[in-house]
Design goal:
- The strands form three sheets. This protein has a five-stranded antiparallel beta sheet, with helices on one face. It has a four-stranded mixed beta sheet with strand order 4-5-1-11, covered by helices on one side.
- It is globular, with a radius of gyration of 17 Å.
- The N and C termini lie far apart (about 40 Å).
- By secondary structure, it is of the alpha+beta class.
- The protein has a single domain, classed as 4'-phosphopantetheinyl transferase domain (Ribosomal Protein L22, Chain A, Alpha-Beta Complex), CATH 3.90.470.20.
- It contains five helices and eleven strands.
- A hairpin with a 2-residue loop joins β7 and β8.
């Protein structure tokens, strides 16, 4: 019998900027207390919406793989990647009014996205080695892609942003210590740099857009 393909999916939505009471009613009570309190401390409605929509998207992504999550088992550290006991590995990112999540059936996954205009080369220089700086100078790499590729690898490794200068980029591969990751670009519009990192042979991601309102249906 042929081996089952390793499903990799990415789900995304636009984030409403106004307070959204229905979203908070639907999701806050489902999350562990510590995570719930951190979301409530966010001052901007768009940030609260993005955090909660990330979990709504994740629920849809899990359902597509036949998994029903127990949100009480969610571990969401203040810094670092969330995880869910017994669930496929996942990664959530939001920036520039867009939120996305990636789920992989086997192995590890990291997802990052940033608005290209928001990434400044001046703030990234210390995170780049000589080879990466040369690639930027030769227009083989952009500052936004370099940052997002490194951040995706960090998430796949379960590390924090403090490790960014230790991530080494070589084409569409990233190395962090002894860990090696494939890097997969995702087109979510020219305004965004979006990359997935995985320790598996890179499957083609299934990408699905969602209407935020319909995520509560």
């Amino acid at each position: 019998m042929a081996a089952r393909k390793n499903l990799l999916s990415l789900h995304y939505a636009e984030v409403p900027t106004q307070p959204w009471a229905a979203l908070e009613r639907a999701w806050l009570h489902r999350l562990p207390r510590a995570r719930r309190e951190r979301i409530l401390r966010l001052k901007e409605p768009v940030d609260r919406n993005a955090s909660l929509l990330g979990y709504a998207l994740l629920e849809r992504a899990f359902a597509a793989q036949g998994f029903e999550p127990d949100w009480r088992r969610l571990a969401a550290p203040e810094r670092g990647k969330p995880s869910l006991t017994g669930a496929p590995d996942f990664s959530i990112a939001h920036a520039g009014g867009r939120v996305a999540c990636a789920v992989i059936a086997r192995g590890r996954v990291g997802l990052d996205l940033e608005a290209r205009a928001a990434v400044r080369l001046s703030s990234l220089r210390l995170a780049l080695n000589a080879r990466e700086q040369a690639a930027l100078a030769a227009d083989r790499l952009t500052a936004a892609d370099a940052f997002v590729m490194k951040e995706a690898a960090i998430k796949a490794a379960g590390a924090t942003i403090a490790a960014i200068s230790r991530v080494r980029l070589r084409g569409r591969r990233a190395q962090l210590g002894s860990q090696s990751f494939h890097l997969i670009p995702v087109n979510l519009g020219a305004r965004f740099a979006t990359w997935i990192a995985t320790d598996q042979r890179p499957p083609r991601p299934r990408v699905r857009a969602h209407d935020a309102e319909q995520l509560l249906a």
